[in-house]
Amino acid sequence: MSFSVTVIGSNSAIPAHGRHPSAQVVTINDKVYLIDCGEGTQMRLNEFGVKWMRVNQIFISHLHGDHFFGLIGVVSTCHLMRRNRPLDIYSPPGLESIIRDQLIAGQTELMYELRFHELNPEQSERIYENEDITVDTVVLNHRIPCLGFIFREKQRQRKIIREKLAEYQIPVEFIPDIKAGKDILDEGTGKRILNSEITTDPPRPRSYAYCCDTAYFPNIVPYIQGVDLLYHDCTFAEDSEQRAADTFHSTTIQAARIAQQAGVARLMIGHFSSKYDDLQVLLREAQSVFPLSILAIEGRTTAIER
Ligand SMILES: [Zn+2]
Ligand SMILES: [Zn+2]
Fold this sequence. Notes:
By secondary structure, the chain is of the alpha/beta class. The protein has two domains: 3-156 and 203-303, Metallo-beta-lactamase, Chain A (4-Layer Sandwich), CATH 3.60.15.10; 159-200, no CATH class. 24% of the residues lie in helices and 26% in strands. It is built from ten helices and 18 strands. It has a seven-stranded mixed sheet. α9 (252-262) packs parallel to α10. The longest helix has 11 residues, at 95-105. The N and C termini lie close together (10 Å). Bound molecules: zinc ion (ZN) (2 copies).
């Protein structure tokens, strides 16, 4: 099963140095999810060859423009491309009226169902689930209500060793119980067959946490503990710590400290201030605290391995 993150936009407020406002695509088991939708997101998705008409869920972290100004474009193009499947949008309160007003002004009656899900910006909770994954929110610390999103693969069932089934002559009707981890009673001999003899462990579930925008906020640590990849706000270098605090953003060292405290496997830093043309200084600072840090590079896909 595939699990990857593609950065579409990595800059903060203003597009600069060839970088764009926030957006990311998460691909899990060939399903495509969009996180944030800054201005120009649909053009960038086309440029990177993302099959974004397949997106059925869009998660918006907060209502600063650099995270949702591209949404009306996506909504409108879906209509013009004759989409007929519903599109679900998850965000803190206030987004629906903004989007609907724009549609009303253009007398656009959508050909598909647009469903808004208002999230509680004060409580971390499960907001989405399908057969493959769960998505939970985590409350961030920003100037306006802002939520991070944690994508987790579901625990798969145990894997049956086919040869063992034949060896013990286990009837097929036992398979669901075996996959669920139960032992089997051999009716011929009256002996118990241990589940561990006939199955192997399922693959380890992988996880991704998107935490942007936020000031340094250790409260998030328990929620993102041990994730395989953490994307964290890293708007400024360490010498701008005061500016980061004033604007409710994070510095390199702060992002790296959160990664360290949460014991994540890898940290991706992004949401870069326009004051940085060259990002190497940011990477070096983050790596000085958390060596497994990488930069968010637009168009680059990072696979989350087991
Ligand atoms: Zn932002
Ligand atoms: Zn913001």
